[in-house]
Amino acid sequence: MNDVRHIDAAERLIRVLDALGIAYALGGSLASSIYGMRRFTQDADITVKPFLPVADKFFDMVKDEFYISEEAIQEALRSHGSFNLIHFETSFKIDLFVQGPSEFEQQLLIRSRRVKLTDTASREVCVVSPEDIVLLKLRWFRDTGGTSERQWGDVMGVLGVQGDALDYEYLTGRARKLGLDELLDRATAEAQA
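Below the sequence we write its predicted structure tokens.
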């Protein structure tokens, strides 16, 4: 998958989220690598529930191990935006996305699954479901002009590996609501070819 030190950096941050009771789901290329084709990535994406009451504690618990901006945390919590942390030891970047109010964003955490990031990992972490990672990757692909071969490749990897194990009723219904139905149809046809 990725450099073991990068996985360790992500797991260190996840331990802080768990310690503070902050609900989360790992997404991005790490999630698509778990469900599909493995590929190297230089960052991790994690969706978190808003955590304003423990924001100061969160900052205090990570500031010695990660570069982080206290102002960026506060702004992301106010706007349901994102902020990043950079692990000092490895320079691995982790983007935290504060969950917004949309039905889809709410589902990301509800539908997440507990899985091990590596075969040797000692614990499971919450990861966005394979259906939702397909939708997130398709949305990113669409929103960046349909030119990201990495995003499309990640979608194809998840569709190819997961196959009939995917909940296609949920996937197609949610794709329609997000305006991604044509892209999903194209991806599904390509994966089955």
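Residues 59 and 70 are 7 Å apart (CA to CA).
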